[in-house]
Amino acid sequence: MRTPQIHPKIFAERRARLAPLISNSALILPSHPEMIRNHDVHHPYRQDTNLYYLTGFEEPESILVFRPGKKPETVMFVRVRDVERETWDGFRYGPEGVVRQFGIEAAYPISEFENMTSDLLLDVDKVYYTLFKDHECDERMARTLLSTKSKRRRSGRGILPIYDSYPLIGEMRVRKTDYEIEVLRKAGHVSGKAHEAVMRATRPGLNERYLQGVFIKEIMSMGASREGYGTIVAAGPAATTLHYVFNDQPLNAGELLLIDAGAEVDYYTGDITRTYPISGKFTDVQARLYGRVLELQKHLINMVKPGLRYLDLQETTVEGLIEIMIAEKLLKGSKDEIKSSGSYKKYYPHGVSHLLGSDVHDAGLVEVNGQSRPLESGMCLTIEPGIYIPSDDTSAPEELRGIGIRIEDDVLVTVDGHEVLTSAAPKEINDLEAIIGKN
Questions:
Q1: Residue 11 clears pLDDT 80, i.e. is over it
Q2: Residues of the domain holding 411
Q3: For the domain that residue 283 is a member of, what is the CATH number?
């Protein structure tokens, strides 16, 4: 019998917070589809974040039905125990194990979902369910709702209305609890120490993938579950591609390396980007441009406090990067002209921040009722200005072509300011040059 790593009370408390928001309703959360791309080749599975957030259950082919105030209130449909399948694929809790280990009131075989859920929905007014994530599950839900309607017969009540559950749970996930903050601190620290190990391993002649391997080894040795997202290891001009995925090119002397990587710990992830010289020392040009981006990033971090709007961060970023672009002769004209025309997007096409938590781009709105959302204590976000100059950009000064720089940290909003969760990853020029290639 496997024992869940997180105590069930954590998830019960979350359901209790959700309950008053969906009174006289049912929330239906299916697991993430199991990804098996080739016959008999199994790939690592990660549970749907919202289902895990409310149950702690990690097996595929599972569905939660949550009906606050009803009996039973929590019902799960899961895979049954199967000795033969468990020999091949690993342990299953089965319905009995789900009730015993996860604090769920009732559990049944997944094959019974449609038949039993149609009865569970008879006395609710609406259903919270996110459509279009899984075609097979959508069809199963449609049949269930039709069956519920049929069982109601001439009550005058048609098919139950469906509301999207994602923004509802997303809003719960925006402000982190003390427990979540501690896990995010660990994810940030583990991610930062792994970045430092990669820096020490970096030297000309290696392959990008070798450094990804170093990162994975380090985070796993410190207790991470997995990478938080697809790691980017981009050497030289590849750093100007925002979502570079190949990670298979050699590291050349004299070029910069950009690595964007984070560790996931208990379903919370770090997200760090560092840029530094492969040879261990910045050239004068690299140091000048890097230093300017770093100073802007530190200024943005120092702005973070309750009440600051997301829009304020983005506007300050754009204005600061435009100043850098003008100083580096990448763009001509006044700051206002460049900003209004949007020409700066050629070298900075993305936003400076996103929410961070159980997903690297975490759930939650950054705009509410058409207005930029102010930051609140307990929010966690990234700060990541950058500048990317394609190698074939003949309008840019030749010495800058092919340089991509991004510096990213994870920042927790506190009651009176902020806390940087990823300070374990060096970013000052002197600190970087002191450790690159020094393992």
A1: yes
A2: 175-435
A3: 3.90.230.10
